[in-house]
Amino acid sequence: MSQATETTRYVFSADPDRIDADRVHRLLSQHAYWALGRTREVQDAALAGSRSYGVYDAVTGEQVACARVVTDGATFAWLCDVIVDPEARGNGVGVRLVEGVVADLEPLRLKRIMLVTEDAHELYRKVGFAELGDPERWMVRPGTL
């Protein structure tokens, strides 16, 4: 199957009611280096406090990717928990997901959308993300988990 045909097999949705919370938890807690072992309780709270997005197989309806955004809806957004099912990787699903998220946030006219990644820089560059121009201005306070 060609890349173009494979990509059209997948449908983006910003409808939080379509999120398969069981599948999202399983993907993140088993396949995401930043969320390995995350409890379902923590994952459900994270989904409840965020804008949630998914990509679905147009044939089966199964969710194959997810992301969430933490935002004030006016100035800032944090894109996080972006994951594609290992079986669907390599088919443009990640790009479709992030393009959909960015398009959904565009009407908010946010000053910036941030994210952190160890291994998906090229995917995010395709959608307009770039490394920080002034990382020395940013600080972080690690959590207690």
Q: Can you walk me through this structure?
A:
This protein is of the alpha+beta class and 145 residues long. It has five helices and five strands, in the order αβααβββαβα. It has one domain: Aminopeptidase (3-Layer(aba) Sandwich). It has helices at 3-8, 21-31, 40-48, 93-105, 121-126, and strands at 10-13, 51-57, 63-71, 76-84, 112-114. Strands 1-2-3-4-5 form a five-stranded mixed β-sheet. The chain is globular and about 45 Å long.
Protein traits:
alpha+beta; Aminopeptidase; 5 helices; 31% helix
Write a short abstract of this structure.
The chain has a single domain, classed as Aminopeptidase (3-Layer(aba) Sandwich), CATH 3.40.630. 31% of the residues lie in helices and 22% in strands. It contains five helices and five strands.
